[in-house]
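Aim 2 progress. For Polyisoprenoid diphosphate/phosphate phosphohydrolase PLPP6, the working sequence is reproduced below.
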Amino acid sequence: PAGAAAPLPEEDCMKLNPSFVGIALSSLLAIDLWASKRLGVCAGEGSAWGSARPLMKVIEVSGHGIPWLLGTFYGLCHTDSSAAREVLLNLLFALLLDLVMVALVKGLVKRPRPTHNKMDMFVTISVDKYSFPSGHATRAALVCRFVLRHLVLAVPLRVLVVLWALIVSISRVMLGRHNMTDVLFGLLLGYALYGVVEHCWLSPATAPALFALW
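Predicted structure tokens for this construct:
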């Protein structure tokens, strides 16, 4: 009839009648952003725990990919033990797999870094400018499982390895580098990636060409 209102476009109807899942996800995202900002106590020198930033940066370096890659490669080049060579070669494979998977997920999700973040430690390039997931958390979980599985350590040292992984992950939120969900997903991803490494374990029998290079 004349004068009747035109029907709303479908996309506007969806906005007026959001789904339960959409509301839940939006609420969780809001809580994540709020909690991450509150926990970013070392995000700046003027923050609540700004004086702890130097210590947090040392922890940050301990979980960065470059020292782990360089250290593993150095060990490969200087070990005379075939058993150690096998472990180090698989650790190198794990670290490279971690870099590739984190880059793929970051490139797909493209979540920006937290707004309160001060990226003054490393220059971010390519997909590393994105936040989800935390590469440090992924690497910490992966290395932690790898070390506990393949190195014979006393109980106190095993506890320290686990604490290191947790502290590295927590530092990402405290420094304002990542949101909480970035870190939680990173830990889950790293835990899962270790299973892939174990399934594809490299040995002289499965990858003779690689071991011939060393």
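The chain has one domain: 20-213. This observation will guide construct design in the next reporting period.
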